[in-house]
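U., I forgot to send this yesterday:
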Amino acid sequence: MDVVQILLQSVLFTRIQDENIEGLLSCLKARTSTFPKEYTIIDEGEYTDEMGIILSGSVNIVRHDFWGNRTVVANLGVADSFAETIACTQLPSEVVVITCEPTTVLFLNIHQVITTCQRGCVHHQGLIENMVRLLSQKNLELMKKMNHITKRSTREKLLSYLSEEAKKRSSRTFTIPFDRQQLADYLCVERSAMSSELSKMRSEGLLEYQKSTFTLYEEE
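Result:
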């Protein structure tokens, strides 16, 4: 695993030269941990002073309401980051970060990330600017999800999400990071109703699917 090459894909390390990353990691008190599938990295109510960057595997960010109903907030993969807001605010987590598969995470001390080091190095200043960009992008992603789940019907929610995924990949055929239950949790719909709606849309020629791979067709 080439950690530097993975970090170069992360928003946090945008425009930072690869030869500077190793020195930065020491400054940021970086540590690496590997977790098995379905492991809770951060639980509700927990505090952390670290953000994580995924080096391999993937995680779901999950929220539970008072009655235990589950909503998948986001699915994150290699080079994506999590827990920035929790670490920055120093408030207890309102979400659960759980692995979808065996996952390796690079943890960085948030205080070291958002404050300049004693040397006042230029690339550390760039890291702070990138953190602002990262938090802004996370906010935009949440706005996109809000656009999906505020649609009136299950069909509209599905079409909104699948359309966004197709545009993101510039292809009418694409694979989503969710199984059926996770997709239902993400869109805040009942799984049975969602599965029924998918079957109807397939019979109407709007789409085709095989497990998590979908193909969209234009309406006639």
